[in-house]
Amino acid sequence: MIIPAEFSLIARHFRPLAAAGALDLKDDAALLTPPAERELVLTADAMVAGVHFLPDDPPDLVGRKLLRVNLSDLAAKGAVPLAYLMTVSTPRDTPEAWFAGFAAGLAADQATYGVSLLGGDTTSTPGPVSLSLTLIGHVAPDTAIRRSGARDDDGIFVTGTIGDGALGLAVARGRLSDPSGHLLDRYRLPQPRVGLTLAGIASAGMDVSDGLVQDLGHICQASDLAAEITADLVPLSDAARAAGPAWLETCLTGGDDYELLLAVPPNREAALYHAASTAGIPVTRIGRFHSGPAEVIIRTANGEPLALNRGGWSHF
Questions:
Q1: What is the pLDDT along the chain (316 residues), one digit of tens a residue?
Q2: Whether 70 contacts 135, CB under 8 Å
């Protein structure tokens, strides 16, 4: 029997990643038994070479970023990751070493985050490498954090630092220096905030993928509230501060942070700080929600409005 090249590639690189329910990646579907008394949470993201990663990025980091941007979505829901489905479309001349590196990156993060591959599809394409991953997680019933639900006087919090991913892309394109390598690393390898307890603490939330200002606007729209943040309170890394004030707008709007953006009532802020300390994840209060038109207002340290030339990343 002649084994098609596609099946041989799957056996070499992806079968070692497969969960038991994947049926050894030899069937047209997979089997998954949800944990008892839990609700499933599903998310999907696509990554295209030249759009979401650079064509010469190391393939292991491409694989890890693909998994991590989806893990970030689940983290924003307060969900525990479980397993994933994946589609890989590559040009016919993609070298074997690329697949080996890509699979090795996935294997490393599967071990870190406790997830496994259930199945998916592989195909060739005349265009750039195109990847899609659907991640499945679970939460206790009725505890998933949504974009809607923010309330008047909720504090606005972010995890980690903002702007490193967008600045890292500028570094990769030769527009900015990065002596420490921190910014480029943050662009290529996000740090999903899996493990931060949000149920019973955050009233709304999402991850920051398309820019802090734009994603905060999504919560405003879903919750029918206004938001005010102080630019000086937005946490920046040492590398981002070293880039200088000319890059502040990029930090606020550039995207690729994959940090969490949360609405937290005043009486739960202490609980958030405790949960963040337990998880080893820094959190910073940068503003508050209040009644009014669904918009984001940015202020300087002295309270003056700060106008921006752009709102965030657009997928179209």
A1: 334 578 888 999 999 999 989 999 988 899 999 999 999 999 999 999 998 999 999 999 999 999 999 999 999 999 999 999 999 999 999 999 999 999 999 999 999 999 999 999 999 999 899 999 999 999 999 999 999 999 999 999 999 999 999 999 999 999 999 999 999 999 999 999 999 999 999 999 999 999 999 999 999 999 999 999 999 999 999 999 999 999 999 999 999 999 999 999 999 999 999 999 999 999 999 999 999 999 999 999 999 999 888 655 444 3
A2: yes
pTM score of the predicted model: 0.93
**What tokens appear for 71 in the block?**
């893990």
**Per CATH, which fold does 5-139 belong to?**
60s Ribosomal Protein L30; Chain: A; (3.30.1330)
Q: CATH classification of 155-299 is 3.90.650.10, yes or no?
A: yes
In the chain, residues under CATH classification 3.90.650.10 are 155-299
